[in-house]
Design brief:
7-stranded antiparallel β-sheet, mainly beta
Length: 315
């Protein structure tokens, strides 16, 4: 048995059919930036939208270099997948500022007709840029609350509907710590409300909840619901150059379009009865199963989400 096989079955809990096992010392493994749709007449422009996606930073392979320790490395090698933002953020209740979010996506499809469960699991770390001391009191340069949220999910389309599944860690809202998990499930709102009150935006209700869906000052979001008993303090060490690798897993019943459970570190959250939002399917993407990673800034500071390795499996 190879060392990769040993790590796969000792650090992960894959379902019976492993679609991908990505260790980023070997390269990008098909993960890339989630780009705008360059489709419009006459020069392949992007469709008009309230959300500007052309300022999202590129996905990187990173050795996690910091000012004092130099190269941090990954959990099991040198390189991890790094998703970052630009140093900008709108208030939470506004649409995300251009560049305030970073995304990575891997484009995949179903291959077994009888598949029922989809699972995504990874080892991750997160931190803010160690750029300046701008606070007062204890640890004024920690910047933990500069990180608004990060998460994992998938864009899925079966033979009947398209639906989005995912979970995010809502870390801070306008500088106020939240430290809780939420799962993707759209509120019963109109297309206009989903697009922040914009009439005629290309995006429809339930689609792309990572950046669409109205937000409210108390941390609510039209694209997410709170995980029951989902408050959890993750490891954020005492300086921004000390990152800890942490485990995250999300399991979904794709036949019922219903969540099963999520796990972070040693805590398992029962999501039985929580449903994804099914919408009319789109043309030419039947069988879609695109895993997604994302991170969002809560202040005018770059923030980072690192993934050491990730497994997508089904059964």
């Amino acid at each position: 048995m190879s060392m990769e096989d040993i790590m796969l079955h000792s650090r992960f809990q894959p379902l019976s059919h492993i679609l991908s096992y990505d260790i980023f010392d070997k390269g990008f493994n098909g993960w890339m930036i989630l780009m705008p749709n360059f489709t419009e007449h006459p020069d392949f422009d992007t469709p008009p939208s309230i959300v500007n996606k052309d300022q999202w930073p590129p996905v990187m392979l990173s050795s996690a270099t910091y000012r004092f320790p130099g190269t941090h490395g990954s959990m099991s090698g040198t390189y991890s997948l790094k998703i970052s933002t630009r140093p900008i953020a709108n208030p939470y209740s506004m649409p995300p500022a251009p560049g305030a979010m970073g995304h990575a996506i891997k484009r995949m499809s179903f291959f077994k007709p009888d598949s029922r469960y989809l699972q995504i699991e990874c080892w991750f770390a997160y931190t803010a840029e160690q750029d300046t001391v701008d606070g007062e009191g204890e640890q004024p340069g920690l910047h933990e609350n500069s990180i608004r949220a990060f998460g994992i999910g998938s864009d899925v389309q079966d033979n009947d509907n398209r639906f989005f599944i995912g979970c995010r860690y809502l870390n801070a809202v306008d500088g106020k710590p939240m430290r809780k998990w939420q799962y993707v499930s759209a509120a019963d709102v109109s297309d206009k409300e989903w697009a922040f009150g914009t009439e005629g935006d290309w995006c429809k209700h339930g689609i792309d909840p990572w950046w669409f869906g109205r937000r409210y000052p108390d941390g609510r979001h039209d694209g997410y619901k709170d995980v029951p008993n989902g408050v959890q303090n993750l490891i954020y060490n005492e300086t921004d150059d000390k990152i800890n690798w942490q485990y995250l897993r999300l399991k979904v019943d794709v036949k019922k379009r219903e969540y099963v459970e999520m796990q972070c570190q040693n805590r398992i959250f029962d999501l039985t009865g929580a449903h994804a939002t099914a919408v009319d399917k789109y043309r030419r993407i039947d069988g879609l199963i695109n895993p997604v990673l994302w991170v969002e800034a809560d202040a005018n500071r770059r923030v980072f989400f690192y993934v050491d390795s990730i497994v997508v499996s089904m059964e």
